[in-house]
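Re: that backbone. Tokens:
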């Protein structure tokens, strides 16, 4: 039976190629292609130096309401929530992106659930909110981007996990399940699933000429000529590519 909550993941070859692209280059490339508002504003790197790229599973928190929280505090009830459900669908390479409404009091994940995420091969989380057990969580082999940290658990305050693998807003960016997220020290950017190959082509070309430009500027080259490349520098760049491939 088909799982209606399973996402469609891009081809592994496409993920591998776009994983060579930084969040900054991806953001700039998407803007040049007419797609703005791809930066997930708010979550910052809690695992400096780590970069991740992978398809997004989404988790949506909504405000709690008393008639909808029967059995709160019962661990067996908690296991039926969207939080447990999304974790059970994690495959190697996945990223969980969480809409916590920008609220930092709720601990959307803690050490135990993040340990499970890591064990299933998930590469990280992007949370428009907070996590708890941060000292232990940050030792795990995953990337973590959040607005903050908190001692509170997922249903302790004013939010509750409501749904998963639905379109969400995270940091004022639209995330559709199966989109690709690129996250590094500059933050997280969402790449529409249908565009990842085109974005990778353009972005990798951009990063190639920036590498050449960086070399020339470090040698004292003319800024007006080498950043961005003028016509003469473009010809030099093409020759440099031939000799460095």
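Recovered sequence:
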């Amino acid at each position: 039976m088909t799982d209606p909550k399973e996402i469609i993941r891009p081809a592994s070859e496409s993920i591998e190629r776009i994983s060579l692209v930084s969040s900054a280059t991806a953001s700039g490339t998407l803007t040049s292609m007419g797609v703005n508002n791809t930066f997930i504003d708010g979550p910052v790197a809690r695992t400096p130096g780590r970069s991740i790229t992978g398809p997004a599973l989404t988790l949506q928190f909504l405000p709690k309401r008393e008639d909808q929280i029967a059995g709160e505090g019962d661990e067996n009830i908690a296991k039926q929530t969207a939080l447990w459900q999304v974790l059970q669908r994690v495959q190697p390479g996945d990223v969980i992106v969480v809409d916590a409404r920008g609220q930092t009091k709720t601990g959307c994940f803690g050490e135990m659930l993040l340990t499970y995420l890591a064990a299933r091969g998930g590469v990280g989380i992007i949370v428009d909110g907070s996590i708890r057990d941060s000292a232990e969580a940050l030792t795990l082999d995953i990337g973590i981007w959040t607005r903050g940290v908190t001692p509170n658990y997922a249903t302790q305050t004013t939010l509750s996990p409501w749904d998963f693998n639905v379109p969400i807003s995270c940091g004022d960016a639209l995330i559709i399940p199966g989109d690709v997220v690129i996250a590094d020290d500059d933050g997280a950017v969402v790449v529409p699933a249908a565009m990842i190959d085109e974005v990778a082509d353009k972005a990798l070309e951009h990063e190639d000429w920036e590498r050449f430009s960086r070399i020339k500027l470090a040698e004292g080259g003319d800024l007006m000529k080498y950043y961005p490349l003028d016509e003469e520098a473009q010809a030099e760049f093409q020759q440099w590519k031939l000799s460095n491939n």
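The CA atoms of residues 209 and 238 lie 9 Å apart. The chain has two domains: 12-192, 198-243.
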